Amino acid sequence: AMAPRRGWVFTGLDRRLAAAPAVVSASPAARPYAAAAKTAKKGSQKTKREETKKKQVTRRWPLMSKPVDDVYLTWYYERPSYDVEKAVGMLKKFQELDFTYPRQYVYINVFLDMELQKKKKVDPFASNVLLPYRFTDETNKVLVFTENEQEAEIARENGAAVVGGVELIKWILEDEIQVDFYVAVPAIMPKLIPLRNKLRRKYPSTKRNSLGHDIPKMLQLFREGLEYTVEDERVIKTRIARV
C-alpha cells in the first residue's frame, strides 16, 4: 500500500495551522475589512482586470511524437487529420468492423476562412445547393405562387406539391397548408406581403433563388437540393453522402 505523502492534498496546511492563533477573539475586527473593501471599490474594474491577468490558464502543449499505444490522453497529442479520400475509406472500414447500418449518412463540418474579410464572423443564414450526386431519394414539398395558368401547368408538370395564387394565403396563415419551401414568380409578389412574417426566411426572394421566372429550375433546386445553415459564426454542418 502507498503511504500518503504530507502536503499531498492541502499544500502548506501544516504551516497555516501553525500560524493560526490559539485563542479567537469574541468580537471580530470587521471595520478594517469594510474599509479595505471600500478602498478597493473605487478601482474595482481595474482591480478585476489585474486579477484576470494574474490568473494564467495552464496550457497543455501537444507532444511532437505520435502515441505508440491505442489508449492515450488525447490532449497530449495533435489531432490527426486526413485527406477526404482516406477519411471516407476509414469510415467504410469502421462500418464493416462495427456492423453498423451501411446506408448511414456522412457528415461534414466546413469552417469558413474569414482571414481576408473585414467581418470575422458570418450572420446565421440558410441556403440550398444541388449536389452532383444525390444520396437520398427523398424530395421536399414545394409550393409555387403564380396566377398564370400556363405557369401553373409547368409547375405541376415539374413536381410542385401545391400551385396557386392569393387564395392560398388564408390556408397558409391558418396552417392548413404546410410545405418545405415556397417559390414564386415576380408578378405575384406584391400580393404575398401578408405572408412575410409567417414564412420568414422561407419567404420567396431572389437572394435565396426562390423568386424568378424559371419555375423548373427553382423546383429542382428546392425539391432535390440540400439545405445547409451557417452557424457558430462561420461553421457549416451538413450531410454530404452515405457510407
UniProtKB/TrEMBL annotation:
Keyword check for Ribosomal protein: yes
Keyword Nucleotide-binding: no
GO cellular component, one term: ribonucleoprotein complex
Protein's cellular compartments: Mitochondrion
Main location (coarse class): mitochondrion
Source superkingdom: Eukaryota
A Pfam family the protein falls into: Ribosomal_L1
UniProt feature coiled coil, ranges: none
Matching InterPro entries: Ribosomal_uL1-like (IPR023674), Ribosomal_uL1/biogenesis (IPR028364), Ribosomal_uL1_3-a/b-sand (IPR016095)
Matches recorded under SUPFAM superfamilies: Ribosomal protein L1
Alphabetically ordered keywords of this record: Mitochondrion, Ribonucleoprotein, Ribosomal protein, Transit peptide
Stretches the record annotates as Disordered: 35-57
Annotated PANTHER family: 54S RIBOSOMAL PROTEIN L1, MITOCHONDRIAL, LARGE RIBOSOMAL SUBUNIT PROTEIN UL1M
Family to which this protein belongs: Belongs to the universal ribosomal protein uL1 family.
Annotated protein name in UniProt: Large ribosomal subunit protein uL1m
Source organism per UniProt: Dromas ardeola
Lineage of the species this protein comes from: Eukaryota, Metazoa, Chordata, Craniata, Vertebrata
